[in-house]
Design goal:
Chain A: This is Potassium transporter KefG. The complex is a heterodimer of chains A (about 210) and B (about 650). Chain A has helices at about 25-35, 45-50, 55-65, 80-90, 135, 140-145, 170-185, 190-195, 200-210, and strands spanning about 10-15, 40-45, 70-75, 110-115, 150, 155. With about 210 residues, chain A is α/β, with parallel strands linked by helices. Chain B folds into 4 domains: about 10-50, no CATH class; about 50-125 and about 150-175 and about 190-405, Na+/H+ antiporter like fold (Up-down Bundle); about 415-535, Rossmann fold; about 550-639, no CATH class. Classes of the chains: A alpha/beta (about 210), B mainly alpha (about 650). The interface between A and B is medium-sized, with 24 and 24 residues.
């Protein structure tokens, strides 16, 4: 999908956590697109660790070898699926990711690629879910902060249950590829990407300016 | 011939009646045998003169006991407890025998006799005390551990004592006896008679070396050869042959048979055949020792007791008080606290069965005069009769005082995790064993295939050759202390029988059993097994899941399907088991069962399929809300 001829300067680690991929309509499309991207190492965590027996050694090695870390997951009860939480609990060890001598992740970029069943209007302080998506992801934002990762705004798709019927997936996937390109080439305006509510906006705006 | 049968019957009957009754009253088996002897001897007069002849034969029980004691003493374990052994045991023996010898000399006896009496009374009763500890669940207390060290030291010390006593022989007694027994002495079953001193020494050293080295290197190929024949009685014969052969060899060179047997026992303590040997020798030892105690009981002179009852009772009490005092001092020195100090003091205050052995040995060697022998036997027996009373005193009076205070008993039992017996160390048992051992649990491994035991030993696993279906074998493997038993043997019938027996004899023991197939697992379950696993079930499930993955099913989905299969199987297994039990009386797998089995297959099929073909299935897990849910939310929000 990458149109750039030059080899990408940075490596992206995509950690995909989806326990029910047979039902997936959005995430599987994004994941398959990412798999084809030369800069991306795409890991299906539920395929690799179906019994939850995560190899800490292997996962830490992967983190060391990449510059950008992406968690891709469908929101389950305003949080990550269980295996991704397990991954955090096991892999982000003291002395590796945080604490004394724990600066293995320092300066790497981190973002979440999320799909949410509810509409964006529901994810508002006065909405049905009472919090914005970014607010709900604050535990991950703080995780990034303590592990010295640079936290970027989430790349989110709302109303994912009907995205297929409303033909929104193709566009979303195209924006996703654009995001991966710019992450690989380090062309993203980080200050802006940190401030946004949703990274999908970043490109909507840019496209408008072009 | 009939006369022998009659006599044997009287002895056995007395034991069969008296021993269980004595045990019921908390007196222990040793007292039971003594009482049985008392009844058929002095009381009823059913047996008489022949008891002396039988006693010599029964003393062979002591030889076997020392063989078994030796086998309990792995050289390594012995080294580990050297401080306690030498400290506690050495002090006790030294102090007690010194004090009693001194008193006996003051009473006007010659120093040889006094020393013999001192040694006799210094010993305590291993048989009574260890058994009582076990019956009352005290083994793991500090007091009982100290007592065990002392008893062990005493048991070992008996051997040099047996060597020492002939040197104390009184010339005037010897000459008196030699006149009457002179003609017997000459028939010469000794090889070393008439040899010069240096050659005699050489022969002795050579025979000890032979027992040690031979026990180590020759016994294994022999046992392996015999074990491979699969004939159980031949193994028993081999075990007996070994002990009797050593006793004979030692007799030939003029050494104590007990010493030889003990040495052989120590040499074999590390052998993979240890438990099987123990299981085979144990019943003989038990019966012979029992016989020995019966003859002691039968040989008690009531006349002497009635004539001197004041003297005998006061000597008995005096000896016990003295022994208790010495023990109390030692307990103080070794910093035993609270109830443990009292346990050590009271438990070992009696004289013991080795006292009888020493007495009769001393009598044969002309150290003690006949009237003194009768008196000493009465004192030893009486002190043993009183021992259960001391334990009752400890339990009722002393323990309650300390129970609420320090709570030291709970503390003592922490290190006793209980062990696991694993029957069958094939490919299955090995994995179970490795998991347990890696987590610091003590396992005792038994297998009847000696090649397999060999193989395990070569890779550093402590396995023993032994038939785990034999109750005696399980006893020596420590089933009483075990908290868990894993049965992974290949013979299906034997496994079922084992479960039945173990559940009957040790209902509190947890039994994990490998079943061969469904039918076998039902039979094991009926026999009372606590946890069952069919040998191929889990590996087949794993293979099935891998097959799914290989066909492109998502690994997590395959994992889920595996779990679903397992869940339904578990839910339905009770139903199937009940159906099987109903049918078990008639044809095993009859129509009703077959129908249920088909139903199970169908249930599994349905459950696994529904997840694949239907996005909103009955199978639960990560089901998203229905498609229109987000819009519903917004509507609710606006309302």
């Amino acid at each position: 999908m990458s149109t750039e001829a030059s080899s990408p300067s940075r490596h992206i680690l995509l950690l995909f956590a989806h326990p029910s991929q047979a039902r997936s309509e959005v995430n599987s499309v994004l994941f398959n697109a990412a798999k084809k991207h030369t800069a991306v190492t795409a890991v299906d965590l539920y395929a690799e660790y179906p019994d939850f027996n995560i190899s800490i050694e292997r996962e830490q090695q992967r983190l060391l070898e990449h510059d950008v870390i992406i968690f891709q997951f469908p929101m389950y009860w305003y949080s990550t699926p269980a295996l991704l939480k397990e991954w955090q609990d096991l892999v982000l060890e003291y002395g590796f990711a945080y604490g004394k001598g724990g600066d293995a992740l320092k300066g790497k970029q981190f973002l979440c690629a999320v799909s949410a069943g509810g509409r964006e209007e529901a994810y508002q302080t006065d909405g049905f879910n009472h919090f914005t998506l970014r607010q709900l992801l604050q535990p991950l934002e703080q995780m990034a902060s303590i592990t010295q990762l640079t936290f970027l705004a989430p790349f989110a798709l709302f109303g994912s249950r009907t995205a297929k019927e409303e033909h929104r997936i193709t566009l979303h996937s195209a924006v996703w590829t654009k995001l991966l390109d710019s992450l690989a080439q380090d062309t993203l305006d980080i200050t802006k990407a940190r401030q946004l509510e949703n990274l999908t906006r970043y490109f909507d705006e840019q496209d408008l300016h072009k | 011939m009939t006369g022998y049968f009659l006599q044997a019957f009287i002895y056995l009957l007395a034991a069969v009646v008296a021993v269980p009754v004595a045990k019921r009253f908390g007196l222990g088996s040793v007292l039971g045998y003594l009482i049985a002897g008392l009844i058929i001897g002095p009381v009823l007069g059913l047996v008489g003169e022949e008891t002396n002849a039988i006693q010599h034969f029964a003393e062979f029980g002591v030889v076997m006991m020392l063989f078994l004691v030796g086998m309990e003493l792995e050289p390594k374990a012995l080294w580990h407890m050297k401080l306690r052994l030498l400290g506690l045991g050495g002090l006790q023996l030294l102090l007690t025998s010194a004090v009693i010898t001194g008193i006996a000399m003051i009473a006007g006896l010659s120093w040889q006799v006094a020393l013999t009496i001192g040694l006799i009374f210094a010993l305590s009763s291993t048989a009574i005390v260890l058994q009582t500890f076990q019956e009352k669940g005290l083994q793991q207390t500090e007091g009982a551990k100290g007592a065990f060290s002392i008893l062990l030291f005493q048991d070992i010390a008996v051997i040099p004592m047996l060597a020492l006593i002939p040197l104390l022989a009184l010339p005037e007694l010897a000459s008196a006896i030699n006149e009457t027994a002179g003609q017997n002495a000459g028939h010469g079953d000794s090889l070393v008679e008439g040899l010069p001193g240096w050659l005699y020494g050489l022969v002795i050293i050579a025979s000890i070396v032979f027992v040690t080295v031979g026990g180590h290197y020759l016994s294994r190929p022999l046992f392996r050869f015999v074990a491979s024949s699969g004939l159980r009685e031949i193994f028993t014969a081999t075990a007996l042959m070994l002990v009797i052969g050593i006793a004979a060899l030692m007799g030939l060179v003029g050494l104590s048979p007990a010493l030889g047997a003990f040495l052989a026992g120590v040499v074999l303590a590390n052998s993979e055949f240890r438990h099987e040997l123990k299981a085979n020798i144990e019943p003989f030892k038990g019966l012979l020792l029992g016989l020995f105690f019966i003859t002691v009981g039968a040989g008690i002179h009531f006349a002497t007791l009635f004539e001197n009852w004041v003297l005998i009772i006061s000597i008995t009490l005096g000896v016990m008080v003295l022994k208790a005092l010495v023990l109390f001092v030692i307990a103080l020195l070794f910093d035993l606290k609270g109830s443990n100090r009292w346990l050590l003091t009271l438990s070992l205050a009696q004289a013991g069965e080795f006292g009888f052995v020493l007495i009769s040995f001393a009598a044969q060697n002309n150290v003690l005069a006949t009237d003194l022998i009768a008196l000493l036997q009465l004192v030893v027996a009486l002190s043993m009769f009183l021992t259960p009373g001391l334990f009752i005193l400890f339990e009722r009076v002393i323990m309650p005082r300390y129970m609420h205070g320090s709570g030291s008993r709970q503390h003592d039992t922490i290190d006793d995790k209980g062990s696991v017996i694993i029957a069958g160390i094939g490919r299955f048992g090995q994995i179970v064993n490795r998991l347990l051992v890696a987590n610091d649990f003590k396992t005792v491994i038994l297998d009847i295939r000696s090649e397999q035991v060999d193989l395990m030993r070569q890779i550093g696993t402590q396995a023993y050759f032994g038939d785990a279906s034999k109750p005696g074998m399980l006893d020596t493997a420590g089933i009483k202390q075990a908290s868990l038993m894993v049965i992974a043997i290949d013979d299906r019938e034997t496994a079922v029988e084992m479960v039945k027996y173990v559940k009957l004899a040790h209902p509190e023991l947890k039994l994990l059993v490998r079943a061969f197939d469904r039918g076998h697992s039902y039979r094991l379950r009926q026999a009372g097994a606590d946890y069952l696993i069919s040998e191929t079930y889990h590996s087949a499930l794993e293979m099935g899941a891998q097959a799914l993955r290989s066909m492109g099913v998502h690994p997590f989905q395959a994992e889920r399907q595996k779990h679903a299969y397992r869940d339904i199987e578990a839910q339905q297994s009770d139903v199937l088991y009940e159906a099987w039990k109903d049918d078990a009386s008639g044809v095993r797998f009859d129509n009703n069962y077959r129908e249920l089995f088909m139903e199970l297959q169908q249930l599994i099929d349905d459950a696994l399929k529904s997840d694949l073909h239907d996005n909103h299935s009955k199978r639960r897990g990560w089901t998203p809300p229905p498609k229109g849910y987000a819009e519903e939310q917004l509507k609710n929000q606006k309302d």
